[in-house]
Design brief:
Length: 74
Amino acid sequence: MRLINDGMFLVNTDECCTFKKDGYVEVLSVKPPHTILARICEVYEDYVLCMKVEPFKIFYGEKVRVLKDSIDSE
């Protein structure tokens, strides 16, 4: 994950699936341990642009989990 600003970030895409625009991902924060919900704004070939929905701060390098309803398995 790469941060763009306080509310938006990029996530590299995975070859196993196609992301859906307006789908959701969870950012797995380490300190304190919790998840932060974010919406997929744009889908590109190599990455997706996401905007966080919750007010919690996110940090570079945190893990991102795609919610099942937000991908199309090929």
